[in-house]
Design goal:
The chain is α/β, with parallel strands linked by helices and about 300 residues long. The chain folds into two domains: about 190 residues, Alpha-Beta Complex (DHBP synthase), CATH 3.90.870.10; about 80 residues, no CATH class. It is built from nine helices and 14 strands. The strands form two sheets. Strands 1-8-2-3-7-4-6-5-9-10 form a ten-stranded mixed β-sheet, with helices on both faces. The longest helix has 17 residues.
């Protein structure tokens, strides 16, 4: 793809108007959400969605999450049963993605679902993304705004470093709140199935499946450009140590052992580790409970 000038505008009326103009023209823009920065395009426009794949270098079999304003808009493109509606009413807007049966005749580009008969949908809570959804009136496909498989972006500067020259606009809304991608639950018949742990804990165990049903299921994902060793209590020669709790390291996810703080800091610290001079990265043990399940999921994929 040819290089282009990437503008960075602070979140506000001017930035939303420009982002909406670009979306209407079939372009893609990077937007803050409450989880990580997303790369948004009109989900009904196949060429626009193709630009997401082109910018990210994303495998075509990996589907995208579609962002909507509310349950009513979700119902225009997916079949929502009582269980799905109850979860949406309880957690939307917020960091919960529901994988639902695709409504027959829904005007969603085939690339969004990667040919599946299901669709991943969520209603974000970040005001910038909600403003863009209102301004465009369209469902917006929006995977994380980074090169495919690399560390997810929690700041506009991360997006610029990864996708600068590939996209026309980044809307800078400051650091993201959760710093961890949404929880993904499939509601496609039978009981709810957890496909990806995240900020919302529904008390479900992650389903181990070889089939790709949603984003974030690739075995190698969220990866820095260096080897990464897990459960390290001390750094070996040539390692940059990311600490947690009583293990300090070169930087820490949370000195107090707070999993909420660790989740918010995870990708920020991995970007810091990637930029450090040491050729490899080590990460201290993280408890595999609560939010630690989601953090360890991301770390295992980063180390794969």
């Amino acid at each position: 793809m040819s290089a282009q000038n990437t503008r960075v505008l602070p979140y506000g009326a001017e930035a939303i108007a420009e982002a909406a103009r670009l979306i209407a023209a079939g372009q893609i823009v990077a937007m803050p959400t409450e989880t990580v920065y997303g790369l948004a395009a009109d989900a009904t426009d196949g060429e626009a969605v193709a630009r997401i794949y082109e910018a990210k270098g994303r495998p075509r079999f990996n589907p995208l999450i579609v962002h909507v304003r509310d349950v009513a808009q979700a119902g225009e493109i997916a079949l929502i049963d009582a269980d799905a509606e109850a979860l949406a009413e309880r957690h939307w807007p917020g960091p919960l993605t529901l994988v639902l049966p695709l409504r027959e005749g829904a005007p969603i580009a085939a690339l969004v679902t990667a040919g599946l008969r299901t669709i991943a949908i969520r209603a974000p809570s970040h005001p910038a993304m909600r403003d863009l959804l209102a301004a465009t009136g369209k469902p917006l496909a929006a995977p994380s705004a980074n090169a495919s498989g690399r560390i997810s972006p929690t700041r506009a500067s991360h997006v610029l470093a990864s996708l600068g020259g590939r996209i026309p606009l980044i809307v800078d809304g400051g650091p993201t709140e959760h710093g961890l991608e949404s929880t993904i639950v499939a509601l496609t018949g039978g009981p709810p199935r957890l496909l990806r742990p995240g900020p919302i804990d529904l008390g479900l165990r992650v389903e181990d499946s070889a089939a790709i049903e949603s984003p974030g299921q690739l075995r190698s994902h969220y990866a820095p450009a260096k080897p990464l060793r897990l459960d390290a209590v001390a750094a070996r020669p040539g390692e940059w140590l990311l600490g947690f709790g009583a293990i300090p390291g070169d930087a820490t996810l949370s000195a107090s052992g707070d999993l909420l703080e660790a989740a918010a800091n995870l990708f920020e610290r991995l970007h810091e580790a990637e930029a450090a001079p040491e050729p490899s990265i080590a990460v201290a043990p993280i408890p595999d409970t609560g939010l630690g399940v989601a953090i360890n999921d991301r770390l295992r994929r980063a180390a794969a």
